[in-house]
Amino acid sequence: MIFGVDPLLDGGIGWPEIQVVLLKVVLAFALLMISVMFMVWFERKIHADMTNRVGPNRAGPFGLLQTLADGIKLFFKEDLIPDKADRKVFLLAPYLSLIPAFLIFTVVPVGGDFTTTEKPGVVGILGQDTLLQIADPGIGILFVLAMSSVAVYGVMLAGWGSGSKYPLLGSVRASAQMVSYEAALGLSVAAVVLMTGTLSTRDMVIVQAGEGFAGFIPNWNVIVTGVVPFVIFLIAVTAELNRPPFDLVEAEQELVGGFHTEYSSIRFALFFLAEFMNVVTMSAIIVTLFFGGPAGPQWFGVVSGTIWFVSKLLVFLFVFSWFRATLPRFRYDQLMDMGWKALIPLSLAWLLLLAGINIGRDQGWNLGLVVAVGFAGVVLGWALLARAVGNHAHRRALEEANEAR
């Protein structure tokens, strides 16, 4: 029950069950790799269209095979290992970035009928009842947070194991950035857990597939939680993935590659692959947490859930590409200020507001009054925090002016 709840395993484990599990693992890995190839092409095309350029158009129809061509080129390049590198750590680091990205995807439901009350999300594969996700652990969303934290080690060890100062400085900066946004990310997820009452990703989809509002507004968590946790999660995960406008780890302003400066050939390709795989998996997590995952009207038969999931996923893949093409890069101090002084206080205040609303509903209090008092508390806390930050900045400016004299 801890490692994965699946009706496939209710009757014990035999050869048919093993076949279904292996089939799901192979299909998930293959589809994820194909989706990463598509994402690289998709982002290049979107960026090209938004900046009035052509984009990939040589390798394959519409340039679809450009990513495959790049991968083949990197695979046959010379693989260099610096003399002063810690060889074992240097070789391990790319896998610590790539493997967590795949493991996160294992708990994402990608299909099934969640509108039925009898066995929601259950489908038949090779004559066996199962779920369209590799595993459904009761602590699914905690597993996602744990794997996203493990990815930090890949970045840090890549810089430290390279045996060079530039990668080490780049890895420290990257690790500080990723850790700074972990708290806001976790608090926004806590808001979803609070409203759904479960840590299971499948159960979150089941809750969101329930009856909505006014007969036509879906019961998505983005609405139930008041939009703010979704916005915080989107910003935090963009910084967590080192995506524009928070892609400071590449250190282009320093004319080096950041934590992966010393990597080449297939090992560099693994970091590149991990970045885009993380975009796909985290977009899938956003869809699962806030937009109902594969839940939706069964207009297309048994494939309806998968069609809804892929459609929602494409929206966020476009959003991440849109960010890259339109937003200027933040300064590092702006990046850290946003994480510590804005997102963490806001996510904590919003979590307390949602908790107050839940308690008020359970106790039969006047919800209008609860919401009003809660908003007043949030605004007051924000004003006090802004004043404290402003006073600190003013004192620091005076000190610097006095030192300049």
Q: Please, could you describe this protein's structure?
A:
Strands 1-2 form a two-stranded antiparallel ribbon. It folds into 2 domains: 7-330, no CATH class; 334-399. It has 12 helices and 2 strands. It has helices at 15-50, 66-75, 87-105, 140-161, 165-196, 201-208, 221-224, 228-240, 265-290, 304-326, 332-363, 367-404; strands at 122-125, 128-131. It starts with 14 loop residues before the first helix and ends with a helix. The model has no long low-confidence stretch (mean pLDDT 86). A hairpin with a 2-residue loop joins strand 1 (122-125) and strand 2 (128-131). By secondary structure, the protein is mostly helical.
In round numbers, the mean pLDDT is 86
- Strand-and-helix sequence, N→C? HHHEEHHHHHHHHH
Provide the helix percentage.
Answer: 55-70%
Number of strands: 2
Alpha-carbon distance between the termini? Answer: 68 Å
Strands of the widest sheet, in order across it, are 1-2
The backbone outline, from C-alpha atoms, is globular
What's the number of structural domains? 2
Q: Which structural class should the secondary elements be placed in?
A: mainly alpha
Instruction: Sketch the major β-sheet.
Output: 2 strands, antiparallel
Individual helix count: 12
Proportion of beta-strand residues: under 5%
Given as residue ranges, the uncertain stretches (5+ residues, pLDDT < 50) are: none
Q: What gyration radius follows from the Cα positions, in whole Å?
A: 23 Å
Blueprint (SSEs and pairs):
Blueprint: H1 15-50, H2 66-75, H3 87-105, E1 122-125, E2 128-131, H4 140-161, H5 165-196, H6 201-208, H7 221-224, H8 228-240, H9 265-290, H10 304-326, H11 332-363, H12 367-404
Antiparallel strand pairs: 1-2
Helix pairs in contact: 1-9, 1-10, 2-9, 3-4, 3-9, 4-5, 5-8, 5-11, 8-11, 9-10, 11-12
